[in-house]
Amino acid sequence: MSRIARRFATLRQQGRGALIPYVEACDPDYDTSLAILRGMPAAGADLIEVGVPFSDPSADGPTIQKAALRGLKGGSTMKRVLEMVAAFREGDDGTPIILMGYTNPITAYGPERFCVDAKAAGVDGLIVVDMPPEEADLLAGPAATAGLDIIRLVAPTTPDDRLPVVFNGASGFVYYVSITGVTGTRTASTDELAHALPRLRRATDLPIAIGFGIRTPELAANAVSVADAAVVASALLNTLEATLDADGKATARTVPAVLEQLRGLANAVHAVSKPVSE
Amino acid sequence: MTCSTIWQGLVFCRHPVQNRLTGGQGRLHDDTIEPRTYSCGVAKLSATDTQAGANSLRSGPDGRGRFGIFGGRFVAETLMPLLLELDGAYRAAQADPEFRRELDYYLKDYVGRPSPLWFARRMTEELGGAKIYMKREELNHTGSHKLNNVMGQILLARRMGRTRIVAETGAGQHGVATATVCALFGMKCAIYMGATDVERQKPNVFRMRLLGAEVVPVTAGAGTLKDAMNEAMRDWVTNVHDTYFLVGTVAGPHPYPQMVRDFQSIIGVETKEQIVAAEGRLPDTIVAAIGGGSNAMGIFHPFLDDPEVRLIGVEAAGCGLDSGRTAASIERGKPGVLHGNRTYLLQDADGQITEAHSISAGLDYPGVGPEHSWLSDIGRAEYVGATDQEALDAFQLCTRTEGIIPALESAHAIAYATKIAPDMGKDQIIVVNISGRGDKDIFTVAEHLGVKL
């Protein structure tokens, strides 16, 4: 059983939903992002998404765009991202790590070598934003061989008859992009989520995480009350950005501020009780 | 207006194209072949679908939208259902004679097609070699080849019930063309343009605003075409319910590279007919500038199965191919994935896209259409570079000898033609695609010539 499957199984037994925070690699520098990553499990993270900076994040809103640029300026390369995950793994063998990013840095690295090295570093799953099922063969073989989960995105625009296409080859969990739009902008209404989730549940047994536009503890709690996990990215990155000095460098407040916000989100998420199942 | 299927399996438009050149004398040898009726605007579509044989180079892309390893649909899931819908709508439009008739009407009476093929006598004499012909796409309404594609896509968007258009633009030519048809059909229009380009293409920005478009300057990155493309995609993904993304070049996710090529192929279809009317044979060489590559793809495509015709795409070498300040994606890039397709990209070893540089805002893009990447790999077309300086020189030469002020984009093609023409025989023929007119560029050119306007 993969680390991701194990984690969701444990959460189900405990009757809890999951909080999945996001940290951009090397934002604004390697050490700061590693310190945030290392602090996340104790602050309540159940799984963690590590953003792989890309120069042209065309599906992301301004917050993640800026974080990606800071990450690149902070020296991020794919090699460095994997080093960061390996460093995290030295002290944490239980928290699943999912890399989130775009296709080109993976193809530049070489898909086979990437999957092998990512697994060796301690990565558990991959979310490749611009790789829909139609293009997934690029990574499917190497990821399966290495034992990495491919987490598929589903959108409000995905029609019912397409769901089997999207879920074919999906593993780990399913990421529901709850709005039509870019990250960190609009928030889906309770009604929209209540409508969306049953149609996904009918098509997959995988855990479902909701992302895009979850900014507050209330919204995160609302998300896990209908789904299995809530992803929070832009809200944490906004907090990080606000702590940087005039030159964009980390300050003493950077790591504590992000982790403190994370604790607030985690408390709200973990206060939601869910049906206990085996 | 009638069109006929004739000669080497190509579908030609048969309206008074040849008459402009030959005073009505230039008839093609079509009398022996049973005429089939096609509308000009989509003549190529029919050629591709029904006549490109198994060994044809014109039959791409495959079912996955790929040309060899290039192309595809690398987009977020939110957009995937829209691309599938677009693909279906485009196929339905291709098969609908009414769509063809409608497009044909607008191409003739609004765009002003066909565009002439001009024998550049003085430039030919000055260079002292091959005969140079110019395909006059700059004479289209709005001053470039861009309207060919935009007209096709806006009619498709209307069929699909969309009411709002978003587009990216570099030099502003695609933006102006898009704003123009939005005015024509009373549709809402948002044009994303890099802030750097907004600055260097002020006349086009003003034109777009006059036409009723909202011009959104994009400050991300270097503020050029790549960044405008990102932002247009973000707008589209946010406003999927009513918005059509009107891509201006033969790049982006499938079916855009195919669709834009098909709409632009009218250039090559006309050229083929016109050069045969004028010279009785095909040209030896066709030269066209490449940014994303739509004008080049449009003129190349009908000639892909004519191996005797050398096809040359001229990329913007900027300050020089090895200067590090270039836009020559095929010559200096590597295959990668950006903006929905796999193609040659300017990128670093870690797969981060690098900034392109060219004096011409329309060529200032770190990628290129996937079909060009494929044509380069299989060796059917050649890709070369012309520098900023060479383009400036060609801009002046063309203006001085032909009385035609070309766009700086097109000046790159002219620059390469001036390099090869002197070494070719006087009985040989080069066709240069003059993709746009240069009025928009006079400020840039003046600055480089040290003239204050």
TrEMBL record, chain A:
The lineage of its organism: Bacteria, Pseudomonadati, Pseudomonadota, Alphaproteobacteria, Acetobacterales. One of its GO terms (molecular function) is tryptophan synthase activity. Keywords: Amino-acid biosynthesis, Aromatic amino acid biosynthesis, Lyase, Tryptophan biosynthesis. The keyword Translocase does not apply. It catalyses: (1S,2R)-1-C-(indol-3-yl)glycerol 3-phosphate + L-serine = D-glyceraldehyde 3-phosphate + L-tryptophan + H2O. The gene is trpA. Pathway: Amino-acid biosynthesis; L-tryptophan biosynthesis; L-tryptophan from chorismate: step 5/5. It is an enzyme of class 4 (lyase). InterPro entries: Aldolase_TIM, RibuloseP-bd_barrel, Trp_synthase_suA. The keyword Amino-acid biosynthesis applies. The active site is at 49 (proton acceptor), 60 (proton acceptor). This is Tryptophan synthase alpha chain. GO terms for cellular component: cytosol. Belongs to the TrpA family. NCBIfam families: trpA (TIGR00262). The alpha subunit is responsible for the aldol cleavage of indoleglycerol phosphate to indole and glyceraldehyde 3-phosphate. Pfam families: Trp_syntA (PF00290). Tetramer of two alpha and two beta chains. Its EC number is 4.2.1.20.
TrEMBL record, chain B:
It catalyses: (1S,2R)-1-C-(indol-3-yl)glycerol 3-phosphate + L-serine = D-glyceraldehyde 3-phosphate + L-tryptophan + H2O. The keyword Lyase applies. It comes from the Bacteria. It is an enzyme of class 4 (lyase). Residues 112-436 form the Tryptophan synthase beta chain-like PALP domain. Pathway: Amino-acid biosynthesis; L-tryptophan biosynthesis; L-tryptophan from chorismate: step 5/5. Pfam families: PALP. Its EC number is 4.2.1.20. InterPro entries: Trp_synth_b_CS, Trp_synth_beta, Trp_synth_beta/beta-like, TrpB-like_PALP, TrpB-like_PALP_sf. This is Tryptophan synthase beta chain. It comes from Komagataeibacter intermedius AF2. The lineage of its organism: Bacteria, Pseudomonadati, Pseudomonadota, Alphaproteobacteria, Acetobacterales. The gene is trpB.
